[in-house]
Amino acid sequence: MILDIIQDLDFLRKKSKTVIVIDDELRELVSNMVETMEAHNGVGISAPQVGLLKKIIIVKPENDIFVFINPSITSYNSNMISMEEGCLSIPNYSRVVSRFSNIKIEALDLSGSKIKMELSGLFARIFQHELDHLNGILISDKSNKKID
Ligand SMILES: [Zn+2]
Q1: Domains along the chain?
Q2: DSSP codes of every residue in 40-88
Q3: What is the band of 42 on the pLDDT scale with cuts at 50, 70, 90?
Q4: 12, 33, 68, 80 — which has fewest CB within 10 A?
């Protein structure tokens, strides 16, 4: 089911809550989030963008789709890369955002198992964009000064 994308910036600036139970209801939400992202040709989506303040993000760096529950960055290098980004919740808007080029992350998968990964390139960028959503941070709130 394709869900409505929230564009209410006051709602999107709220912080999401840790997911405690990973059950069929949550898996259905994830499946709807994937469908919604694909319908809008997005490369990532977060639960608050479909109206749920839960720590769930989906990242599609290329053809594969990754689901991260309760995601966090555990370490990063100091190398920043600036690139133009858009956001499904802010149509017809883009801005240059600096992100860490390489990050190590942890999260849970849909079966509740812990995932640890090292991300770089577009994968790392989209992950950081979606993680920002869980903290109520939008690209329109980010500094766009070039660091690299
Ligand atoms: Zn976004």
Answers
A1: 9-141 (3.90.45.10)
A2: TT-SEEEGGGGT--BSEEEE-SSS--EEEEEEEEEEE-S-EEEEEEEET
A3: very high
A4: 80
